[in-house]
Amino acid sequence: MDSSFVHVDEPVALAMTLIPNSSSVEKAVARQWAYMGLRDIGPGMHWFEDCVLYPSSNLSMRKPDDMYKPIDLALFKQESDGSLSELRYSYKGLGRRIHASGNVHLDGGTYGPLLHAPIDLSEDSHFFHLGSNGGDVFCAKIKYWKLPVDAYGLPKIPEHQVLAIAFFIRWMWAMANSDKQDRQLSRSEYIAARSEARGRNKIPNGLEMEQVSKEWINLLNAPQFKKF
Predict the structure, then answer these.
(1) Half-sphere exposure of residue 30, counting CA atoms within 13 Å on the CB side?
(2) What is the distance between the alpha carbons of residues 169 and 8, in angstroms, rounded to a whole number?
(3) In the chain, at which end, N or C, are there fewer CB atoms within 10 A of the end residue's CB?
């Protein structure tokens, strides 16, 4: 798996060689296009992070700025001795609840997973939201796919994606400045390069390959770590 990165200006400079009579204005816009291309290609298997989120007074938790998509999330209550115990939740998708649940415990703000009243969890573009029975939540631990950025908030570009992102920039320029035939050609070149880049993103590492091999050889006795 490729793990080295280059500055965003490298695919931008390459793209400028593909754009006739490119200007400084187009170069500045190309940085934004580079980030759009990075998001469109998506993260590699090694681009993940974990962190702790704390709910605000309105039971919302702001998502990490570098998050692409969440992988897993766990809610915790803090006990009197300072230890954490996990709370159960039910993921409800986008927005907050607008209908009564039909469960008197849940509608009354009571946490009771054995009474079919786990905590509602939903989200929007920037926040995770807890239901009215989420007042006991002290924190959430989240694992997520991320897009790498540098100290200035600029995207860091994996070396194996430089050409694909340069083609994406060229396609965006063609969409705004070129004829239909050139736009179609630029798109086809980008799609082919994107497919190759995504394929390299998904190559498993050695530990994953070894575990998969063990599970296929001995399905009954292979250890399963469901909670990790």
Answers:
(1) 27
(2) 12
(3) C
Backbone angles phi, psi at 185, to 5 degrees: -65, -45
CA 4, CA 158: separation in Å to the nearest integer?
6
Tokens of 163: 């050409």
Q: H or E stretch including 90?
A: strand 89-94
Cα-Cα-Cα-Cα torsion 104, 110, 112, 115, nearest 10 degrees, comes to: -10
Nearest to 139 by CA among 199, 213, 62, 202: 62
Phi, psi of 129 (to 5 degrees): -120, 135
Exposed e or buried b per residue across 21-49, where buried means at least 16 C-beta atoms within 10 angstroms of its C-beta: ebeeebbebbbebbbebbeebbbbeebee
Q: 18-52: per-residue pLDDT in tens?
A: 888 777 767 788 988 998 998 898 877 777 889 99
- For residue 44, give the amino acid letter: G
Positive or negative torsion for Cα 11, 17, 21, 23: positive
